[in-house]
Amino acid sequence: MPTPILQPGEIEAGAPPAPWLKLPEGSAFADRAARLESLAAGHALADYLRFVAALSRAQHEAYTRMPALTLPRADLLAQRRAHAMPPLDATAQARGTAWRVALQQIVAAVNDAAPPPAQAAIARLQSADDGALEALAATLLRQDCDDFDRAAAPFVAAALQVQARRLASQLGAHQVGRLETASLCPVCGSPPVASTVHVGGEYGLRYLSCALCGSEWNEVRIKCSSCASTKGIAYYGIASGAPAVKAETCDACHSYLKILYLEKDPAADPVADDLASLALDLLLDEQGYQRSGLNYFLIPGPT
Ligand SMILES: [Zn+2]
Ligand SMILES: [Zn+2]
Asked: Cα dist. 103→108, 109, 230, 287 in Å?
């Protein structure tokens, strides 16, 4: 067989460039549930990890039952992109009603597996009117958690994640532009839960994972995702902990974000592995670093 002759430009064009943005595709909740189950084995927080696994399975069911949602109008999306604003505004008042349907499905599914304080919160959510539920969502998304029904937080967050993921999955990459700051999700404006160093076609590239909609956006490595400093960055892990999970600390702003290396464990999941590495958070707290990642299931609640 003759060797094909490359035309000028073909060598450079060989591999498609890695995307700067990875919109969510389908439900990742079932994989997360499986990851949490496997991390729970022999873990000091096994009961809680299994409870969040049950919550993730309920999210998967709610996601698959959720119909296609209505996106903002195309001209509004174009306008938001032109002004470097995310196409979906997580904190907008008019967030739609699908999340409330998902919420009732989720709490019904996990009620039997929930510990008593969480069952009391579930009962409150089942009897709350729409206005009260919207107020809970608004408070949670503003991260105004001093004044919040903490036991209800994981359920409200779980339902909001399902709706946000569904909406984000319906967007096209051309409808999303880069924000001025890499510290917030370019799709919905929420903070990241953690970052992940990918394998395969994105080998070695680091992506931040949105705590709410599950989108991932590229950010260079050895750079603070919170203040953008490239100096004073260090990595901490725990000798007895998972080798795929480290914390990237910044001495400029004294914050840290977990970083997951898929090369060391391809099943690592930002939400699940963040929860299972709480010992690392305790270590960094002792060292004077503040968490910049947002994990809705870390808000004290059902345990
Ligand atoms: Zn997002
Ligand atoms: Zn920093």
From this structure: 8, 10, 41, 38
Ligand 2 centroid–CA 31 distance in Å is: 31
CA 243–ligand 2 middle distance (angstroms): 23
For residue 261, the SS3 value is strand
pLDDT at position 83: 95
| Average pLDDT for the chain | 91
Residue 48 has pLDDT above 60, yes or no: yes
**Residues that place a CB less than 5 A from ion ligand 2:** 224, 226-227, 229, 250, 252-253
- Note whether 30 and 61 are same-domain residues: yes
Per-residue pLDDT of 25-44, as tens digits, reads: 989 999 999 999 999 999 99
- What backbone phi and psi angles, to 5 degrees, belong to 85? -110, 150
Domain boundary among 124, 141, 175: 175
Q: Residue 190: pLDDT above 50?
A: yes
> Ligand 1 center to residue 55 CA distance, Å?
20
DSSP label at residue 114: S
Ligand nearest to C-alpha 257: 2
For residue 24, the ligand closest to its alpha carbon is 1
Residues 143 and 225 in one domain: no
pLDDT in tens, 115-147: 898 999 999 999 999 999 999 999 999 877 677
Query: What would the two tokens of residue 62 be?
Result: 């709610």
186 located within any domain: no
In angstroms, the Cα distances linking 142 to 40, 92, 93, 104, 260 are 30, 10, 11, 22, 26
Q: Which phi and psi (to 5°) does residue 163 adopt?
A: -65, -45
Measured CA to CA, the distance from residue 202 to residue 205 in angstroms comes to 6
Q: Are residues 69 and 164 in the same domain?
A: yes
Query: Which residue type occupies 49?
Result: L
Among the candidates 122, 146, 175, a domain finishes at 175
